[in-house]
Amino acid sequence: MAERLQKVMANAGIASRRSSEKMILEGKVSVNGQVIHELGTKVDSSDVILVNGQGIDVEKKVYYLFYKPRSVISAVSDDKGRKVVTDYFKDIPERIYPIGRLDYDTSGILLLTNDGQLANILMHPRYKVDKVYVAKVTGLLKNDDLKKLRLGVMIDGKKTARAKAKVLSSDKNKKTSIVQLTIHEGRYHQVKKMFKALGYPVQKLKREQYGFLDLTGLSAGKYRKLTNAEVERLKELTTKFK
């Protein structure tokens, strides 16, 4: 699919879109051997783009849904040599990276892409994409604490946004609860900190949904490509709250 030249340059990491526009107007960019001076020019993955005489890599945009296992880092590399999510995508030629992150010991749904623009938008808190977690916690959750989760909990000096919360099951003998929590924020260790603030340490955590997407048909360590319709729905999520 053809996209504006300045957008392609920005997605390739050459410069910001505004700086890319300036470079085009200054005659520093050529497409298929022709110097471009107009901002409306569109290009696709088959075009040869040079910036100051150096080629840029224009990759086809790809989108994957991955069932992240526990004990895997949500990154493309790790200086401690631990397993990272991209280790599961060795046969994928594109340079993909995760949208957001899941903790090392948290399993569940994670999206990976090389579409930097969509990734940045989806991670921005203003777009309020719901994420559904299921947590096994120590303790039998009280109704008052369930209400607190729904109204917001103070963590790191700031109250969390309203959430949806319900107890799926309880084990009175082991004194544990299975709780489903739906949030749209993405603060560091947020779910664990919310439960800990109320006195319920998380033993096990899984993210089961991201927006309208879930893990149906996947087992831990497996992935699938998003359909074109799913990609469009993701993009619609980012325009809903503009």
UniProtKB/TrEMBL annotation:
Its EC number is 5.4.99.-. The keyword Cytoplasm does not apply. This is Pseudouridine synthase. NCBIfam families: pseudouridine synthase. Belongs to the pseudouridine synthase RsuA family. Pfam families: PseudoU_synth_2 (PF00849), S4 (PF01479). Residues 3-65 form the RNA-binding S4 domain. GO terms for biological process: enzyme-directed rRNA pseudouridine synthesis. CDD domains: PseudoU_synth_RsuA_like (cd02870), S4 (cd00165). One of its GO terms (cellular component) is cytosol. It comes from Ligilactobacillus ubinensis. It comes from the Bacteria. GO terms for molecular function: RNA binding; rRNA pseudouridine synthase activity. Keywords: Isomerase, RNA-binding.
